[in-house]
Amino acid sequence: MRNFFLTIAILFLVNVQSVHAQQSKPHNPIIEGWYADPEGVIFGNKYWIFPTYSSSYAKQVFMDAFSSKNMVTWKKYPKIIDTSIIKWAHMAMWAPAIVKKDDKYF
Rounded to a whole number, what is the distance in angstroms from the first to the last CA of the chain? Predict the structure, then answer.
């Protein structure tokens, strides 16, 4: 009976370590959702991804951004820009790119 409980305890510990290892390793895809055309940059001590939101043509009217300090866990910044502030764009914003000049981002 003691061997049975020892075996159960070992299996539990192995399972806990396996779950922890999965959470600390990169996975693919790295972000949830349907995205394309990612722009990847490093600003300061963070990795950034600026992708195209993939949907029907009329619904691609905004862009999200994602940042990470370790390339494993990613933070989402939803709708960082949309067609309400870009007057000449009314549909389908694609393939973002970003640059930094002085203290401004373009």
Answer: 67
Closest CA to 46 of 24, 22, 77, 18: 77
**Chain segment 58-100, per-residue pLDDT in tens:** 888 889 999 999 999 999 999 998 888 888 887 888 888 888 8
91 DSSP assignment: S
Residue for token pair 């389908």: 92
Distance (Å, whole) CA 106 – CA 85:
14
Cβ atoms of 63 and 48 within 8 Å: the answer is no
Instruction: Find the radius of gyration of the CA atoms of the chain.
Output: 21
The structure's pTM equals 0.71
Q: DSSP per residue over 2-49, as a string?
A: HHHHHHHHHHHHHHHHHHHHHHTS--SSSSSS-EEEEEEEEETTEEEE
Number of H helices, E strands in the chain: 1, 6
